[in-house]
Amino acid sequence: MFLAIREMRHSKARYSLIMVIMLLVSFLVLFVTGLARGLAYANISALKNMPANYFAVQSDAEHTFRRSQLSDTELAAARSVAGEAKATPLGVQTSTITAAGAEVKADITFFAVDMTGMLAPEVTEGAGFTNEVQGSAVVDAKLEQSGVTLGSTIRDQASGMSWTVTGFVKDTSYSHTPVVYINQLDWQAMKQGTAVQGSGTGKVPYNVIALDVTSEQAAQIASQQPSVEVITQKQAIASVPGYAAEQNSLLMMIVFLFVIAAVVLAVFFYVITIQKTSQFGILKAMGTKMSYLAWSVVGQVMLLSVASLVLGILLTLGMNMGLPDSMPFELDGQTIAMTSLLFIGMSLLGSLISVARVAKVDALEAIGRTGA
Q1: How far apart are CA 372 and CA 367, in angstroms?
Q2: Phi, psi of 127 (to 5 degrees)
């Protein structure tokens, strides 16, 4: 390590340029990773934050909530195994709403839930409402950007029904649309095409049954009903429209960025190693061990990687503070740690090419070349 540090101090300009390149690559990797995580969270935050770990859907719905239709019969069967508090129906409907006093239209997803059950939204501003009250809704805070405020009246373009916003919740998006929570009375009325009081007859199907059960209970529920399939929360998230394609594309970009980083660093250090062939030959002739020379090369890469990575993290976090709220970006400590380890690992992997080159240096040949 002494040799590596001394050489870097002697050739400040050369290694500073390499460090700048590594800084830019690490920043790009971290920024794209944070963007991918942010887009994923903006797509499925409503499902991810649910206390349910399993979902019962129609067997031929291909795990997609909106294709599934379940009745009170399936709900009763699920509750007979899980208990009433651990199995609750969920209605899902994508639509477009307008707000009184606001000209902006907004695409949203209705979530019809039991307002006293485990899926009841946690209101962060305003107040919730009960299952017996019609015409009230709790909406995602992102709708404030569309002009929706507490007390606003929102209108569904498809059914013509209206709701008064009583509260806001945070981080509840489904398929990149903010979620509007309504109760089962309004769900029945909306699906039947009428807003008449007392329309909760139970004839209108639900889409999903959310479950908080063990794996054994989930298997028992699925075995009792051939028309029902019980999927995990992870499977439900993967089936959200557009989620898998979006994440696979971003993951491919991140993988290529790691590969590019490794190739760029390998090329830079390989060229530098070739330029120092005679010096390595002299050191070998003096009896310097190959392990010491290898550690010198790897140490340089490690020092530059760690230093540029620290600066890249600070630059990314600073950039995040200046991003608008509308841009989805999420970079937690676990993601930073994992990305950092991968970046350093790829950098060290690229340095092995230089180490192999040093191992092939012949001391006599290098000294003879110097003498010539």
Answers
A1: 9
A2: -145, 160
Helix (H) or strand (E) holding 353: helix 333-359
Split the chain (372 residues) into runs of 10 and give each run's mean pLDDT. Answer: 64 79 86 87 90 93 90 91 92 90 82 93 92 93 88 90 94 92 92 54 77 93 90 92 84 84 80 76 76 79 86 90 79 86 83 80 63 46
CB contact at 8 A, 218 and 211: yes
What residues have CB less than 8 Å from 210, skipping those under 6 apart? 50, 52, 54, 55, 87, 88, 89, 90, 118, 119
Joined together, the tokens standing for residue 152 give 């606003």
- Read off the pTM: 0.78
Which helix (H) or strand (E) covers residue 165, if one does? strand 162-169
Q: 3-state DSSP helix/strand/coil percent for the chain, to nearest 5?
A: 55, 20, 25
Q: DSSP letters of 206-274?
A: BSEEEE---HHHHHHHHHH-TTEEEEEHHHHHHTSTTHHHHHHHHHHHHHHHHHHHHHHHHHHHHHHHH
Which position has the token pair 């998006």? 173
